[in-house]
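Issue 218. Parser rejects a valid record. Input:
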Amino acid sequence: MKTMLSMVVVSIFGWLASGEGAFAQPGKSGIERMYVLYCGDIALNDMGRFSPGFSGPGALSVTCYLIKHAQGYLLFDTGLGDAIAGMPNGQRSNAGVWHVKKTLASQLAEIGVKPLDVRYLALSHSHGDHVGNVDMFKDSTLLVQKAEYEWPGPNNMPRFNPAMKSIKADGDYDVFGDGSVMLIATPGHSPGHQCLLVRLPQTGTIMFSGDAVHTLANWDLKRAPEQNFNHAQSLTTLERMAALLKEYDGELWIGHEPTEVPKRKYAPAYYE
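Output the parser choked on:
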């Protein structure tokens, strides 16, 4: 019986990952509201590393998203570490300088949400500008792709705390079972990168890009950084994302694209 069940699960994930008929139309969405959270800024030494065709200094925004669902809160990415807010000159990385003007913790407090209230912590991938505050949510259930979870970190260390509860998806995954919040397997930038597709009752369908897309120029020209884990796979992922957005009449929100910042309502405002 256990073997048969495993076969069924594998078959389902394989079908989802194919992008063909991936999602059933949801009934009444359980999403009550969605918050956009500021999670930092990055001053880049060389924009070309992230957006081919550009050169010289550049900038990326860092964005996180909090979804209030009838079954609990889900946070997508945690951004740069809150500790950076106390560093007047920011924190240097191999790509530039990280800055945090307002902490994630303070934004959650402003809307009356405690880290303990966050049922699910979904991470696009394991790079530092997306996992800077993971330790704040040690009681949440981690939602990551199996390939990302098993990818050896620096010095062969685990990328995630093994003591943390986790769901390791092997492909697309319907988080709440109603089709309103889906993990979308989008490998290439990292082995187990994933986007998040949400279907808001009033706003409509949105896909959060993570690092599958860094800039609007990359999306418009369907290109990806050469430094990605698998460049060819990154380009295939862009094709799949475009197909899903077309199929579900969705909009792509690029969390690292600075020109999108003034277009968004940030917490405590929200989308429904």
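Fixed in the parser; the record now loads. The two ends are 42 Å apart (CA to CA).
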